[in-house]
Amino acid sequence: MILLFLILILLAGGALAWITGKWSDLLPRVISLVALSLDLILLIAIYNGQSAAGNNSWWIDYRVDWIPTFGISLHLAIDGLSMLLLALTMFIGLVSVLISWKEIHEKTGFFHFNILWILSGISGVFLSMDLFLFYFFWELMLVPMYFLISIWGHENRIYASYKFFIYTQASGLLMFLSIIALYFIHGRSTGIYTFDYIQLLGTTMAPTVAFILMSGFLAAFLVKLPVVPFHNWLPDAHTEAPTAGSVILAGLLLKTGAYGLIRFVLPLFPEASVTFAPAGMILGVIGILYGAKLAFAQTDLKRLVAYTSVSHMGFVILGVYAFNEIAMQGVVVQMIAHALSTGALFILVGQLYERIHTRDMDRMGGLWKQVPVMGATGIIFAMASLGLPGLGNFIAEFLILAGTFQASILMTCLACAGLVAATIYSLRIVQKVFLGKEKTTWNISDLSVREKIISASLVITLVYLGMLPQQVIDTAKPSVLKSLNSIEQTRSQNTGKPTGEASIWCDEINTDGASAKYLKCKLW
Amino acid sequence: MVREDFICLTPLMIIAGAPVLMMLVVAVIRSYKVIYGLSLSGFILAFLSIFFLLPVIPHATGQLFIFDGFTILFFVIIILACLLITILSDGYLVYQESEKEEYFIILYTSALGALVLAAASNFVTLFLGLEMLSISLYVLIAYRRSRDNSIEAAVKYLILASGASGFLLFGMGLIYVDTGSLEFTKIVMALQSSGFSSPLLLTGFSMMVVGIGFKLALVPFHMWTPDVYHGAPVPVATFIATVSKGAVIAVLLRFFYAIEGFRNHNFILLITVVSILSMFIGNLLAIRQQNLKRILAYSSISNMGYLVITLLIGTKGGIDAAVFYIASYIITTIGAFGVITLLSDRDNEAEKLKSYTGLFWKRPWVAIVLTLTMLSLAGIPITSGFLAKFYVILEGLNAGLLVLVISLIINSVIGLYYYLRVVTILFSPPNDVKFPAISPAGRLVLFIVTLGILWLGIFPEWFFNLIARF
Amino acid sequence: MNTFFYIAAAVALISTGLAISGRNAIHALLFLIVSLLAISVIFYILGAPFIAAMEIIIYAGAVMVLFIFVIMMLNVGMESEKESRWLKPGMWILPSLLALILLVNFVFMLNKMSHQNIPGRIIEPKEVGISLFSTYVLGVEIAGMLLLAGIVGAYHLGKQKKKVLHRFLKQEEIEQPGNTEG
Q1: How far is CA C101 from CA C27, C43, C59, in A?
Q2: Which domain holds residue C102?
Q3: CA distance A450 to chain B (A)
Q4: Can you tell me the ipTM of this complex?
Q5: Does residue C129 belong to any structural domain of this protein?
Q6: Residues of A in contact with B465 (CB under 8 A)
Q7: Is residue B291 helix, strand or coil?
Q8: What is the band of B60 on the pLDDT scale with cuts at 50, 70, 90?
Q9: Helices (H) and strands (E) in chain A — how many of each?
Q10: Is A142–B380 a contact, with Cβ atoms under 8 angstroms apart?
C-alpha cells in the first residue's frame, strides 16, 4: 500500500498543483516540494525499516487485481535497485522544482502538474512488477514530458517534442507487442495467463522466439537509453526542453531504459541476452566514442551536454552486457552519478541561459570574473563528467571498466579511449565558458542563495557517491545478483560448447558469486 | 407474437413511436422545447426499457430479429450515443434558422434504423435498417440547407449510398439464389452443407462487402467520408461516425461470425487487404489535413481498419474486443465532435485547425477534453483507446494475425503524428479567435464523455465483465 | 422460354443504359419506364405475376409522378418551344420502339406459355400477402417508418423557404436584387 501511496501522492500533488495554479504561482511550487519531500521521507522510512532484513527477496510486495480478465494486476514491489532509483527520482524532482522557481512564470500550475506526473510515471516504472502496468507507466510519462517540451521549450520545441514522442512511442509499441507475445507463450505452456513479472520469469521458449521478443524490449530500452543508432531524438529533446525538462530527461528518463535492461531483459531472456551481448558491448563502445566525438563538435552548450549523455550511457550498456557483478554495480552507480552530474551541467546551462540568453559557446568566455561561484561549481561538474577520482562518476566508470575487462579486453581499451575524449570535451566546456578571452562583456550576477543550495546539494551528493559508494553498492547488490543469476545459470549450462559469437566474448565460469573468477578470455 | 416478442421489441417500439408522436405534436403546436423534451425522454425511456429485455434474452422474434446479449450491448451503445448526440444537437440547432423540429423526427428514424441493424438476423431487416439509416442521413446531412457544403455532401452521400445499396442488394440476391434463404441461420446451415465453393456465393458475399464497406468507409470505398463529414452539420457527422458505423459493425460481426467467414481463405485475404489499406490510407491522408472534421473523417477510416481485424479473430474474444473497441471509439468520437459542435457559432463551424490555436489557455477544460479524445484515438494509456487497441492486439496475436497486428502498430505511430498535431495546436500561444460560451448541457456531455474515456481507460474490468457476460 | 427472357433482358439493359446516358431528364425517364416494363416482363416469365403488376403500377406509376414533379420543379415557364422540341419524333421514337419489341415479345410469350415451362412455382398475390402480414409483418412496419423518414425529409428539404443567405452574400443581395434567385 505504501508503494501505491508513493505514486498517488505525486499524482494527487500534480492535480492539486494545477488547480491551485489558477490562484497563485507560489502554491504549485510549494505543493510540488511538499509532495516530493513526502515521498522522499516515505522512501527513507522504507529503507530504514528494511535494512535489517537485507536479503534477496523484495522489501515490500504489494499486489491487487486490476484487470483480472487478462491477468493484469497492480503489482508493485521495491528492492534495492528500485529504492536507489526512486530516491534519485525524488531528489532530481526536488531539484527540478527548485530550478524552475525563477525560470517558469507562465502556467505554473500546469507546469508542475506535468513535472509531478512525469515523476509518478517514472516511479511507476521503477516499481511495476507487472509488465502491463510497466508499459502503462512507461507511456504515462511520455505525455506530460511532451507537454513540458512543447510548451515551455526553446525555439525548435515542437519539432523536438514530436521527435521525442514518436521515437519513444514507436519503440514502446514494439515492446508492448513483445509483452503480449510473452503473455501468450507463457499462458500456452503453463495455462496461466498473466502479465506478472515474477511468474513470467521462468518462461521457456525457443531461442529464435526469445531473441525476437527480446528485440522488442530492446527497441524500447535502447531508444530510451539511448544507444547510438537510435540516439537521434535525444539531442533535440534535451536541447529544446526547459531546464527542468532536460534534467528529468537526462537524469531519470534515460535511466528507465537502463533499469529496463537490468530488470526485464536480462532475467526474462537470459539466453538471448548472452547471444546479444557482444553486439550490445559493441553498441556501448560505439556510443561512448561517437557520443564523445559529437559532444566535442558542438557549439551549443546544451547540445554538448546532451551528447555527453549519449557517451555516458554507452558505459551503461557496456557494463550491462559484461555480465558480471562488478560491471553491473558500476552501471548502478553510473546511473546515479550520471543523473547528478549531467543534471547539474544542464542546470548550469540553464542558469547561464537565464543570465545571458544564449547557449552559444562562441559568445561566452571569461565568465569566471563575473561569476566565480558558478564557475567553481561548473568546474566541479565538468570534472565529475570526465570522471575525476573522488566524484561519483569515477567510481562508476572504474567499476564498469574493471568488470568489462574480465569480459573483453578490447572493448575495455576502446571504452578507456572514451574517457580521454570525455576529458577533452569537459575541459572544453570549462575553457570556452569560464576561462579564456572575454568575447562579449556580460553584466551578470552570480548564483543566488537558491541556486547555491541546489548546486551545493548536487556537489555534496556527488562527492558522497565518490567517497563512500559502499552503501549504494550494498543496497543494489541483491538486485544486481538477482539480475545476473539467470545469466549465470544459462552460461554455466553452455560452458564447454563455445559458439562462433564467443570470439569477442569470454566465457567465464563463476564459482562463487563475485569473488573468485576463473577467466578464460578469447580475443579474436 | 408472444409476450416475449413484445418485451423484446419495446425499445424498437419506443424509438418508432416517438417520431410519430412528435409529428402529431408538431401538427398541433410547433414548439421546439416540447419536441426536444420528447426526444430526450424517448431515448431515456428506450434505454430504461432495455432492462426489461434482460430476463427474456436470448430470444428470436420471428425470422427477422434476434435479441441476444450482443444485441443488447449494441442497443445500449447506440441509444446512449443517440442521447448524447441529441443533447449536442440542441446546442447546435440554436443556429438553425427555421424548422428545427423535424430534425429530431429524422434523428429518431435513423436511430431506429441503427437499432434494427443491431438486431437484424435476416437480410430483410438488414437491408431495411440500412436503408432507413441512409435515407434519414441524406436528410440530416442537408438539414441546414443554407450552409455551404451541405447539399453537395448530401448528394454525394445519396448517390454513393444508393450505389452501395444496389451492390448490397445484388449480393443478397445472389446469396439467396444459392442458399434459398434470407435468414442468417438458414444460410449458415446451407453453407455448412455446401461450403463456400459456389462462385455465385462468393460473388454475392463480395458484393455485400462492397455495400457494407461503403457504410464503414473502408478503403476502396472511402472517398465520400471526408467530404460528407465536412459538409454535414457537426452533430450529424457525429452520428455518421458513431451510431451509423457502430450499427453496421454490429450486423457485420453477427453475420460474419455466423457464416464463419474467418475460416475461408478468400475472406481472410479480402479483409486483410481492406484492413491494411484502410489503416494506411486513412492515416496517411490525415496527416496533411487542416480541418479537424476531415482529420476525424480520415481517422475514422483508419479506426475502422483496425476494427475489422476483429472479424478475422474468430473467437468470443474477438467479438468482445470489437465491442470494446467500438464502445471506446464511439465515446471518444462523440467527445471530439462534441467539442467542435459546442465551439461552433452561427456562421462558422469550429472546424479549422487554426482556430483552435491556444485553446488550452482560453478554455482549458474544453481543450483537455479534446486532448483526451485525441490521445484516446492515438491509444495512449489512461484513455479507453489504449485498452481498446490493447484488446485488439491481444486477441489478434492470440489468433496469429501477425501482419495485421504489426500494421496496426505501425499505424498507431503514423496516427500519433497527426493527433499530436492537434494537441500541439491546442497548447500553442493563443490567437484572438473567439468561441461562444458553452451551455450547461454541453458541459454535461463533455463531462460524461471525459468520465467515460477515463473510466474505461483506468477501470475497464467491469466493462470487460459486462461484455463477457453477454 | 429463354429467348423471351433474353429479349426482355436486352431491352431492359439497353433502355437502362440510355436512361443513364441521356442528357435530357425527361427522356431519361422515358427510357427508365421502358426498362421497368421490361423488368416486369421478366418477372412475369419467372412466374411472379403479382410483382410484375406491382412493378408497373408502382414503379411506372411512381415514375410518372416523378416525371410530373420534375416538370413542375423545373418549371422554367414560357418554354413552349422547348416543349415542342421534346415532342419531336426523334425523342419518342426509340422508347416506343423498345416498348413495341417488349409488347411483341410479351404477346408471343403469352401464346407459348404454360405452367410447365415456368421455372419454379407461380407465386400468387395471396401468398405474397400472407407472408407480408405474417412472417414479414415487422419488416412492413419498418418499411412504413422508412417512408415516414422519407416523407418528413422530403417535406423539410423540398419546402420553399425564405432565402437565407450567407452573410457575405447579403451585401450582394442588396446591390443586385435581381440576381439572387435560382
Answers
A1: 18, 17, 20
A2: 2-124
A3: 30
A4: 0.88
A5: no
A6: 69
A7: strand
A8: confident
A9: 21, 4
A10: yes
